[in-house]
Structure formats: structure tokens, C-alpha cells
Amino acid sequence: MATVRRDERDPVGEQADTRPRPSDDTAMTSVADYYAGKNVLITGATGFMGKVLVEKLLRCCPQVRALFLLVRPKAGQSMQQRVDDMIKCKLFDRVREDDAHFHRKIVPISSELTEPGLAISPEDADKLAACVNIVFHCAATIRFDEPLKHAVQLNVIGTQQLLGLARRMRHLEAFIHISTAYANCNRKHIDEVIYPPPVEPRKLIESLEWMDDRIVQDITPRLIGNRPNTYTYTKALAEYVVQQEQDKLNIGIIRPSIVGASWQEPFPGWIDNFNGPSGVFIAAGKGILRTMRANNDAVADLIPVDVVINLTLAAGWYTAVHKPKTALVYNCTTGGINPFHWGEIEHHVMSSFKRNPLEQAFRRPNANITSNYLIYQYWILVSHKFPALLYDLVLRLTGQKPQMMRIFNRLHKAISLLEYFSSQDWEWNSENVNMLMAQLSPEDRKTFNFDVRQLNWPEYIENYCIGTKKYVLNEDMSDIPAARQHLRKLRNIRYTFNTVLVVFIWRVFIARSQMARNIWYFVVSLCFKFLSYFRASSTLTN
Ligand SMILES: CCCCCCCCCCCCCCCC(=O)SCCNC(=O)CCNC(=O)[C@H](O)C(C)(C)COP(=O)(O)OP(=O)(O)OC[C@H]1O[C@@H](n2cnc3c(N)ncnc32)[C@H](O)[C@@H]1OP(=O)(O)O
Ligand SMILES: NC(=O)C1=CN([C@@H]2O[C@H](COP(=O)(O)OP(=O)(O)OC[C@H]3O[C@@H](n4cnc5c(N)ncnc54)[C@H](OP(=O)(O)O)[C@@H]3O)[C@@H](O)[C@H]2O)C=CC1
Question: Where are the transmembrane segments (predicted)?
């Protein structure tokens, strides 16, 4: 079994390791000083975490020489257009304030990670081989329903190819791979080690080459075994593939849990996608999602994106400067240090969206999570399907296209894929993370803060919800009074609807059936008796 030992930081007895060791001077450099004059290569820079990584490097390590971003053309946009759009976004406002010409440090390189040779031109590959000092590999498919072939192609073969390129880099000091804390979610306790892979990646890759898509689809459940999806399965394989290079490269592996909006930087609550909990929060805030399967008492292992990026940069520094003998794994999680539970998340998300409502909510936000399958199915029927049918009926009657049932079907698919992670909890060891924190200077501990003991969850969740409103939905905060007014209107509609329903039931059952009338009189007389008893006893005590 190939496992990763914790860094012993003992340079003695390393005959096999020919890589240069750090001098005392370099070991003492601060994180920002280390990145000064360095050429950094980043994959997945256009993604959620990649963008935050680029921003933080430019803002807090302003002496960095160049950032080479491997980007592919997409949706009719060239790679250059995509990078231009990316750096225009609000996330980069603080960097722009500090240095209006920061874009000069960004060098986009056209690359498609699923193509042979990463589809990098020979000239670009030579340039990278000659100058890159540190690689951050963030790119991956994070979809939970990705067909196995594609997930392997990108997450495993793409990683292998990048490692091949890294081996050619003459001045490479560190290779940092972003994995996930759920790569080994088939275990309950997860140490900072690389576990044996579920299958030898080479054998799997060879088999997938000749199998057609139908066969692959059929055998996927058997292959992934007790992992919930191809994403976690291929991320586990990728870790193993990265580990195979530990004799040749200085490697660090970061395993974040559920990455959420930023905690502090560049500003609280920054988020730009529907992945993971963000989509659930938005659907609940819009009043669409009323129930979800989750365990109230299970730890919700959210981790703010800026924490992950701070840890990643610090790990890059540590790996390059201290050159650990084996690849170090960092479990970047909150559960063991500052636990917060799904039940608490539900409470704070709901109250936050009541204070700061989203525009044009479908219903008042009121979602309840439950681990009980029957209760869940009941609420799906009563609170999702029935209102959707009713709404679509109204749309049809007014000559419009029905849409609510379609939205709910997509939502049900999304939440069914997430419930595996919200219905149970895991224990992650974080010794390497603690070790890394202890290695930082007090100044670096502030600039590259990943100490989640200081995280105030209610405040974080409030900023997260506001962040989904501002940055994902692009809603204006000045519209909050109108949104509150809309919620009041929805509440009045609900009261009216409930009253009409009661009157209707009364008319149909009470007024028309003798037996219902008898029951009704019995209930009313019981209430009267109770009231008179209550009055009499309170008169006596007075
Ligand atoms: C108050 C309650 C508290 C309890 C709260 C519990 C939260 C419990 C979170 C656990 C979270 C674990 C996270 C593991 C941690 C990793 O390791 S990381 C990677 C995380 N990866 C992901 O989250 C990817 C999951 N997403 C997917 O796989 C795909 O988006 C889906 C869900 C299969 C949908 O695929 P699709 O149908 O092809 O289409 P896509 O365009 O992607 O999205 C379709 C619709 O689904 C919606 N959608 C997408 N993602 C989501 C989502 N997460 N939620 C809702 N809707 C979504 C989109 O908004 C879109 O809606 P429309 O705009 O069309 O109306
Ligand atoms: N988000 C989360 O909750 C968590 C994420 N992680 C890990 O963090 C990393 C980053 O995740 P995140 O930022 O959320 O993911 P995103 O989906 O936001 O970003 C993925 C990035 O990978 C790039 N990419 C995808 N396919 C290719 C390809 N074929 N060729 C080149 N580039 C490609 C995307 O580029 P493009 O813009 O062109 O599509 C994008 O830049 C991943 O490795 C993920 O496994 C780990 C734990 C949790």
C-alpha cells in the first residue's frame, strides 16, 4: 500500500532524494516573498476556486512574475476573451485598485486538458518547461453525473498529462494538486494519507479505451462501488496518479470539503455559481425548495473558498521551500475544528433570507430538512409537486407555457445527488494543516489565514446568502424593501388561500354530511366546555 507519511522535516537519510534541500535562508522566507519573481502555472483558473487563487496571488504576492493560465476556448469565446471577461469581474476590484495593469502578469495558454498533450502548442510547452516554478492544478469536472469515461479523461488522464508536462519543467519547485475531502468518502475516518486506489488507474484507462459508452454506463455502479458518483471515484484515482510522481516532484495535495462563499476576502460572501449548497440556498431563498433530505445533527462541513486558497498558497510555499520527502496531504475541513450542523445551517439560511429576501420569490422561504424518507416524500408531494401543478395550471389557463414542474424536476435531480453528503458526516484528521499553520510567521498567518476556529458561522451564513443574491443572481441590495413587500404579499395570499380552503372544506363536508355535522358540533361543544371550565377555574383562583 502506498501511503503518505507526515513530513518529518529531517534532512538526514535521504540518499535516494536528489532534489535540492532548502537553505536556512529560504526556509525563513515569508509566503509572499517566496512567490516574488516566480512563474506560476494554474489550471482551472476560470473556475470558482481558480479565480480566487489568481486574485489572491496578484493581490497578496504582488511581486509574482507571471501567471500562466491554461484555458480552453468555450461557448464561442476565445481563450483571450474568456480571460479578459474574467479579470473584469468584481472579484478583481481590489487588485485593480492596487495595480491597474495587473493583467500584464496574466499569460493565457490555450489548452484542453482532455486532448493529447493537453492541446498545448509545442512552443508554449517549451516556454512552460523553461520557466514555470510552481503548478496549481485546479481543473476538474466536478459534476456528480459525469459519465465515467469523461470524468476519467479529465480528472485522471488530464492530471497524468499535466504531471508529464511538470516533469519537463526544469525549474519546478512544487506541484499542488486540488483534490476533494470526499475522494475517500467510502471511509468514515479520513487521515491525511493517500489510500490505495479502488482500481489501478492504468488498467481502468486501458479498459475504457475499448469499451463503448453503453457498456461503461452499465458497469459504472459496480466500479464506483460504495462511492456515490464518478466525481469522488476519479478524484481518488487522481490522488494516486499524483502520488506516483512524488520521487520526482515536490507534491502537495489539498483536500477541501464543501467549498462555499468567501469568508473575508476579497470581500465577504463572494460566490459565483450554483454548485453544492449555493444552489440549495438559492432555491430555498426563492421559496421553491421546501424540503431536502439531510440529517439535522450531521456536521455540515462547509469551508470558505478564501480559506482553501490561503491554505493552498501556504502549502505551495511549504512544499517548495521545505521539500517534504513524500507528497503531503492537507485535509481542508471545518468539522473537526469548528463544527456546525445542517439543522443550524437550515435555521440561519431561512432567517437570513427573511431579513434579506431574494427578488420575485415563488413562496415565502420556509424549507425543512428531514432524514425521514416518508416525511420527505410527503413534503415533496404537498410542498413541491402540488403547488407546481397548480402554478402550471394557472399558466396554462392564462395562455402561458407551463414551467414550474420542469424546474422542480431539475431541482429534485440536483438535491438527490447532494443528499449523500448532507445525510451523514465524516471525521477528517488535520495534523498537516495544523503543522503548516505552525510553520507560518504571525504575519503570514494573518495574510494567508486558514484558521477556521475564528469562523463565526451565523455571520458567515448571512454573508453567504447575501453573496448569492448579489453575485450569483446579480440582484440589487436597494431592492430589498420591494422584496420584503413581495414576501408580505405572498404571506397574505397564503392566509387567504388557507381561509378559502377551510371554508371550502366546511361547505363540502360539514354542511352536506350529517355525520360531519355531528362531528363538527361535538368538536365545537367540546371547545365550549373546555373554555367554560377554564373560565370557572380561573375565577376560583382569583
Ligand atoms: C436550506 C437547506 C440547507 C441544507 C443544504 C444541504 C446542501 C448539501 C450540499 C452538499 C454538497 C456536497 C458537495 C460535495 C463537495 C465536493 O466535492 S465538490 C463539487 C460540488 N459539485 C457540485 O456541486 C456539482 C453538482 N452539480 C451537478 O452535478 C449538476 O449541476 C447537476 C445537479 C447534475 C445538474 O446538471 P444539469 O441538469 O445538466 O444542468 P445544470 O446546468 O448543471 O443545472 C441545472 C439546474 O440545476 C440547478 N442546480 C445546479 N446545482 C444545484 C444545486 N447544488 N442545488 C440546487 N440546484 C442546482 C441549476 O441552477 C439549474 O437550474 P436552471 O438554471 O436550469 O433552472
Ligand atoms: N467546489 C467545491 O465545492 C469543491 C471543489 N473541489 C476541487 O477544486 C477544484 C476546483 O473546483 P471548482 O473551482 O469548484 O470547479 P469549477 O467547475 O468552477 O472549475 C473547473 C475548472 O476546470 C476547468 N476545466 C474543466 N474541464 C476542462 C478541460 N477539459 N480543459 C481545460 N480546463 C477544464 C474549467 O474550465 P472552463 O471554464 O473552461 O470550463 C474551470 O476553470 C476541482 O479540482 C475540484 O475537484 C474540491 C472540493 C470541493
Answer: 495-513, 519-536
Q: What are the tens digits of pLDDT across the range 340-374? A: 999 999 999 999 999 999 999 999 999 999 999 99
Calculate the average pLDDT of the chain: 92
Q: How many domains does the chain have?
A: 2
Pocket mutation for ligand 1, best pick of 48, 230, 278, 280 (most atoms within 8 Å of C-beta): 280
Query: Is residue 396 one of the residues assigned to a domain?
Result: no
Q: Are 184 and 224 in contact (CB under 8 A)?
A: no
Using the Cα atoms of residue 238, residue 240, residue 246 and residue 250 in order, give the sign of their dihedral.
positive
Tell me which residue range forms the domain holding 508.
486-541
- C-beta 180 within 6 A of ligand 2: yes
How many angstroms does the Cα of residue 154 sit away from the middle of ligand 2? Answer: 10
| DSSP character at residue 89 | S
Question: Is there an atom of ligand 1 within 6 Å of 144 CB?
Answer: yes
pLDDT per residue over 285-301, tens digit each?
999 999 999 999 999 99
ipTM: 0.92
Please name the residue that has the C-alpha cell 366546555.
529
Model confidence at 516, pLDDT cuts 50, 70, 90, reads confident
Instruction: Kindly tell me the burial class for residue 437, based on how many C-beta atoms sit within 10 Å of its own C-beta (0-12, 13-18, 19 or more).
Output: middle
Residue 189 located in a structural domain: yes
Question: Which of these, 250, 310, 351, 431, lies nearest to 60 by C-alpha position?
Answer: 310
Ligand nearest to C-alpha 413: 1
In angstroms, the CA 38 to CA 504 distance is 74
CATH of the domain at 106: 3.40.50.720
294 lines ligand 1 (CB under 6 A): yes
Q: Tens digits of per-residue pLDDT, 392-424?
A: 999 999 999 999 999 999 999 999 999 999 999
Atom 47 of ligand 2, nearest CA residue: 180
User: Is the distance from the beta carbon of residue 420 to the nearest atom of ligand 1 less than 6 Å?
Assistant: no
Task: Give the ligand whose atoms come closest to the C-alpha of residue 109.
Answer: 2
Taking the centre of ligand 1 as the mean of its atom positions, its distance from the CA of residue 276, in whole angstroms, is 5
Q: Which long-range contacts (CB under 8 A, 24 or more apart) does 410-417 make?
A: 411/283, 411/288, 411/289, 411/384, 412/380, 412/384, 413/145, 414/279, 414/280, 415/280, 415/289, 415/292, 415/293, 417/144, 417/145, 417/228, 417/229
Regarding the beta carbon of 428 and ligand 1, being less than 6 Å apart is answered no
| Residues 443 and 509 occupy one common structural domain | no
CB 225 within 8 A of CB 186: yes
| Rounded average pLDDT over 91-115 | 96
445/515 same-domain check: no
Question: Mutate which of 227, 301, 418 to test ligand 1's pocket (most atoms within 8 Å of Cβ)?
Answer: 418
